[in-house]
Amino acid sequence: MSVRRQEGETKNGAAEIRLNGAVLSADPSGALLWPDRQTLVVADLHLEKGSAFAARGQLLPPYDTRATLGRLEALVGKHRPTRVICLGDSFHDGGAGERLAAADRARLRRLTAACDWVWIAGNHDPEPPDDLGGRIEAELIDAPLAFRHRAQNQNARSRGVAGEVSGHWHPKAAVHLPPKRISAPCFVSDGRRLVLPAFGAYTGGLNVLDPVVSGLFRPDFFVHLVHRERLYGFPRDRLVV
Fold this sequence. Notes:
- Helices cover 18% and strands 32% of the residues.
- The chain is an alpha/beta fold.
- It has a single domain, classed as Purple Acid Phosphatase, chain A, domain 2.
- Strands 1, 9, 10, 11, 12, 13, 14, 15, 16, 17 and 18 form an 11-stranded mixed sheet that branches.
- β9 and β10 (145-147) form a beta hairpin.
- α2 packs parallel to α4 (102-113).
- The longest helix is centred in the first third of the chain and has 16 residues, at 64-79.
- The two termini are 23 Å apart.
- The model has no long low-confidence stretch (mean pLDDT 89).
């Protein structure tokens, strides 16, 4: 397997992941960098999830969009990518764009104007807002990688899964590090495909040992946990439910 195999905390902050011949860098923020293409990738922003819950009577602090955009702004400012790819579910629902505060709309427009910005359509936002800048795509193929919202079935005939980068599942993993048990969002890969953790402020997660997620990968997959702004690498046999 061509994923970083050293177990434990990374020493330089980021973790190298080799995927279908491409050399990628997992960032402690939960974002992915493709240095050779000057590309920054994030998954599942779920902007305006807080306001969607509030409309249903479940009151959450209405700061999720502000927090998520602040983290994204900081990453773009730090890495200066020429392209940003958002892997779908960037907006929590079809009305999220209309509920954005004026200040958040302005921040988004500044971000999308600064580089080639790609909104991949997701199941929550099959038609992302078209008035915030950037371009909308069902998926993006940039050989040797394919960027889409949801991983294709292993048996899919079209294009296969080699080099696939996706989100959707909000993967999390848990490990026992006596005397503690740590559970955190994670990157998960087997060298052929990669699923990113959710980047949004109000996003839960699904344990990678759930068959829905583990079934996407070869048995010897590897994860990088995102915990307290650090990355920790573990093979599958170290994970617990």
